[in-house]
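Much of our argument rests on the idea that a fold can be written as discrete symbols. Part of our work consisted of pairing the sequence of a single chain with a tokenised description of its backbone. We regard such an encoding as a compact summary of how the chain folds. The amino acid sequence and the backbone structure tokens for this protein are reproduced below.
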Amino acid sequence: MGTGSCGVVYQNERFNIVGGWGFPLSDQGSGARIGLSALEYSLAALDGISPSTPFTDSINAEFSLSAEEYVLYQNRVPLPKEYGAFAVQVFQFAQQKDPIALKIIQQQVEWVSQYLDALIAKGAQKIVLVGGVSEAILEYLPERFSPYFCQPKGDAMAGAILMAKAQIGRKAI
């Protein structure tokens, strides 16, 4: 769970992938999806559709308190990492118990929980959470997942090389 997200089960030298189909259709629990929600709730607060909080006020200030600025932002087709940059504020304001920031995190925790349940259903007995969002969201995840969590045996590059070897059938990469 970083800018994007996916789950991977590795058993018997085979990979089974959950999610990871790209933003905005997939990547639930990712920084990009959290950031997108931040903008959705903040724009809704600006329009008076949903309540305004210190969190939404902060985001709206970045958009000069202007719905038109949101449209201009959207029209230039920002990259997932640009949406993901707003996730930092979600977690900062959640620490201050901002209700909208907490709501966004809870919605994403529901998605992450579904990913974890899918991994467990596919046979995962140990789960490693990696990526910047994983560290921040860990404290919000249901306790029932704690027995599955463990430390990684390698970094993301080691995992990518292992996946590449399995996908193309070569052992000498």
Remarks:
- The chain has a mean pLDDT of 92.
- The chain is about 50% helix and 5% strand.
- Strands lie at 7-11, 14-18.
